[in-house]
Amino acid sequence: MVTPMTADLAVVRTRWAAIGAAVAVTVGAAGVGGYNLVNADVSTGDRPVFVPTTPCRLADTRTAPNTVGPKSSPLGVAEIATITAHGSNGECTGAAAIPSDAVALALNVTALGATEQTFLTFWGDGDNPGTANLNPAPGQPPTPNAVNTPLSDAGTFNVFNEKGNVNIVIDVNGYYAHHDHDDRYEKTPDQVVLSGFEFQSDDPSGDDWHVDETFIHTPSATRECVYAPIDLPAGRPITGGTVNYITDDPGDFDVYLVGTVDRAGTYATEPELIEVAVDQTLSLPATPDADLVVSGESFDAVDDVVVRDDFTYVVTICTALRVALVSVSFDTPEI
Question: Which region ranges are annotated with the description Disordered (predicted)?
Answer without folding.
Answer: 124-147
